[in-house]
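Late entry, written up from scratch paper. The run itself happened at the end of the previous shift, but nothing got recorded in the book at the time, so transcribing now.
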Amino acid sequence: MGVRRRIAHLVAIFVVIGGGIVGVAAAPAHALSCYDGWLRSDANNKYVSVELGYGGGSNAMLRARASSVGPWERFEFCWGVQNNPGYLAIRSIANGKWVAAELGRTGNDYGMLRARSTSIGPWETFSGLTGLRNTTNWKWVTAELGQTGSRDAMLRARANSYGPWEHFTNSGP
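Output as recorded:
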């Protein structure tokens, strides 16, 4: 795991400092650079959990609600999705599913993040070099601190601008 973290870190530094990769052949899809870790909302200082106790369309919703890291707060972060070193996919370790932005939903459920996918597609792909943005709707991922009850601090890809609710820290390399 330490080697994967160092490789992911070096790739990210190269992309940020170098402004991208020029003249390098695209890596095959299986050449993702992955590491295990956690995600924390800086707005409320809570760790992101996968809500596996929820039923129906809310099952595996992501919420920034935990005070410490347990099994539901562990993720695998994989860089190099769609042959782009700045693109990221996130997999819940608790249920083995990829995190998707629910872009087919409406209202307050639009863009809800859920660990529900068995493969990586457009809804499961995020740009992660500055903040976290879904690459389909290009909206920033937000911890919804204005919600109440079981939706308090749920994560949604819905913000047009980057602010305090869109700032996250992870246990990255």
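The chain has a mean pLDDT of 84.
(Scratch paper discarded after transcription.)
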